[in-house]
Amino acid sequence: MTEAKPIKTPTLPDAQTVTEVKHYTDRLFSFRCTRPATLRFRSGEFVMIGLMGAPDPKTGKQKPLLRAYSIASPSWDEELEFYSIKVQDGPLTSRLQHIKVGDEVILRPKPVGTLVHDALLPGKRIWFFATGTGFAPFASLLREPQTYADYDEVIITHTCREAGELTYGAEIIEGLKTNELLGEVIGEGFWKKIKYYPTTTREESAKMGRITDLMRSGEAFADLGVEPICPKNDRAMICGNMAFNLELKEMLEDYGLEEGANSEPKTYVVEKAFLD
Ligand code: A2P
User: Fold this and answer.
1) pLDDT of 167-199, one tens digit each?
2) Are strands 194-200 and 153-160 parallel, antiparallel or unpaired?
3) Deepest in the core among 20, 78, 115, 198, taking most CB within 10 A?
């Protein structure tokens, strides 16, 4: 008689458990997962996350399928949050969009990135410029006490194709008003420092147009009631699609800002939003 061997379920390396999933549109969703006790990161940084890939047809071996994702939760949060696009034929997001509470995701606990306060010199006002899922690092930084300790004013612009794509960001900002923990840590009414400027380009909304065009025409500054960007007062972080990043980078340099890095803080920083 042979004894039946128990089947060993393969355990994922660096596995974390999904605790919440929210779908916003047919192109966007967010999820939360457990945070490794050893993971320390600075608000605004990204990590590699993913799922186990399909078995290799020849060897049967599986390799993790990983992509860079900004951590959307702040550094003090017990869990981790991510905000993702859904690409129907994307190698990772075509599968990641179907994750459910209790499922496991792979997370490589090596946070990096330039959208961090350390990469900027002190200033009066900080601008967060996002398109689409580029809002993610700012979802982290908007919930980070240092943002309000360092600046008198926090301006967040978010340009999306459609109005539904603004929901995630709008909810994060609305949530700040009732976040008792942050109110206690930073000071009641801290959120009054925020000026939120959402715009859409392909669907009617309260404000239409690309932020770049609205800045060039002066309309964005007039709407926000602030002076145009100047290197003395203003600091900026950019996170969006490639064309947007390049265009805005050039505009900021025309205003006199200079690109900073962790090793050499200056007046603006830029990072590409995850796209796949
Ligand atoms: P548009 O609809 O005019 O292309 P995407 O979903 O393709 O990443 O785009 C997100 C948002 O970024 C869209 O509203 C898009 O506007 C806008 N966008 C794309 N390229 C630029 C750019 N060079 N400057 C400013 N906004 C841009």
Assistant:
1) 999 999 999 999 999 999 999 999 999 999 999
2) parallel
3) 115
